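forwarding from the other thread:

> can someone predict this with flavin-adenine dinucleotide?

sure thing
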Amino acid sequence: MTEVNTLDETLTIPTQLIEAQKLPTLILGGGFTGLFTALHLSHQHYQTPIILIDQSSRFIFKPLLYEFLSGEMKTKYICPRYDTLLHQSGIEFIQDTIQSIDLQQRQVQLASGLHYNYGKLVLSLGSVAAYFDVEGAEEYTLPFRTTEDAVALAKQLRNCLQRATQTPKPQKQALLTVAIVGAGCTGIELAATLADLLPNWYAALGSNVADIRVVVIQQGKEILKGISDSLRQTAQTALRERKVPVEVLLETEAIAVRRNTVVLKRNNQIEQLSAATIIWATGSEIDPLISTLSIPEASHDKQGRLKLTNNLQLLDFPEVFAGGDCTVMEQPLPATAQVAYQQGATIAHNLQALAESHSLLPVEIGLRENLIKLGLDESVADLFDSDRVKGHLRHLIR
Ligand SMILES: Cc1cc2nc3c(=O)[nH]c(=O)nc-3n(C[C@H](O)[C@H](O)[C@H](O)COP(=O)(O)OP(=O)(O)OC[C@H]3O[C@@H](n4cnc5c(N)ncnc54)[C@H](O)[C@@H]3O)c2cc1C
C-alpha cells in the first residue's frame, strides 16, 4: 500500500491502482476495431497515454481491396499510413509484431524485444485465413486479405497472362485459368472483378480473351450463404454477364491442392482442375495469438473467439476490452468491418467512462445494408433487400 498524505487526512490507495493509472492503454491491432477505438479516444481527449501497435505501417480498408487490385481507387484511400491517420492525435503508433500477451502480468511482448505493461488493454487482432486442414491449401494457394496479398496476386496474374502469350494451346489453358475456392463475399467479389479485369489485361497483350476461365468452387448448394435471395439472384446474373462468364461449381469440395491443380470431389467422383492461379477464400479463423491467451475454457467459443460482456470486456479481465473478428457476443454478429468499427466506438466510450468513474454502456450495433462488388464499374447494394445500385453511386456508397 502507498500512503498519500493530505493536510487533514491520510488516504490509503492501493499501489496497484496508482500504477494502473500511470500505465498506458495499449491497443493491439490497428484494424477496424483498433484504429476506430484509438481515434475515438483521441477525439474524447482521453487523458491516459494510448499506444497502438500493428505489424503493418498502413491501415487496410479491406472492403476496397478489389478496387486496390484493379487500380480503380488510389492507394492512399484504401491503405493510408498510420502516421498520416494518427497525425496530431496524440496516439503513439508502434509498427511491430505482437509476440505474446500476458493477461495475468498485464504485459505485452513485441518481436523487436520491446515490452509494455498496460493499465488497460484492447484486443483487436482480427482473423487469419482458415485452411481447414486441406492438404496443400496453405502451400499452393494465394490468400486475399491484405494489400500485400493483392500485390502478389496481381503479379502472379500478369505473369501468367504474359507466359500464356508464348505458350502453345494445350498447355496455356492452365495459365489462363483462375480457381477461387469459396463462394462467400470475398470469393464472389473477387471472381466478378477478375472476370472483367483479366480480359482487359489479356486484350492489351493482343490475345483472345475468350480463353480466360474464372472458376469458383463451392462446397455448399448456393453462393453467398446468409445473404438475401434477391441479392443472390442479382449476383448470379452479374457473374454470367462479366466479360468472361464466371463458372460456379456448386456442391464441389476442394479436397487437396497441388502445384497448378485443385483436386475436387463432386458427385462422389474425384476430378482435377488445372489452374496456375488458385485463390483461397473459404473463411477465417482467429489470430493465433488469441488462442495463446491464458483464459478459462468457458471464456471462448469452440472457434476460440473471445466471449465478451455487453460492455465489450473480457469475462475475467475487466481491464481488457476486445472487438472485431476475434470476438463473439452472446447474440453472434457477422464478422464484418461495420460491426468492428462500431464496437471500437463503444470500447472508446467505455475506456473513457472507466477513467472518469462513470458507468459503462452496452454495445449497440446497427447493421447496415450489404454492399457487394460484382465486377468493374458495377456493384450491388442490398438496400431494403431489393435495390440495385450501379456506377458512380456505388463509389459514393462504398
Ligand atoms: C477481402 C475482404 C473483403 C471484405 N469486405 C468487407 C465488406 O465489404 N464489408 C464488411 O463489413 N466487412 C468486410 N470484410 C471483413 C472486415 O474487413 C473484417 O471483419 C474487419 O476487418 C475486422 O476488423 P478487426 O478490427 O477485427 O480486424 P482487422 O481489421 O483485420 O485488423 C486486425 C489488425 O491486427 C493486426 N495484427 C494481427 N496480428 C498481429 C500481430 N501479431 N502483431 C501486430 N499486428 C497484428 C493486423 O495487421 C490488422 O491490422 C472483408 C474482409 C476481407 C478480407
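The longest helix spans residues 147-165. thats all i got for now
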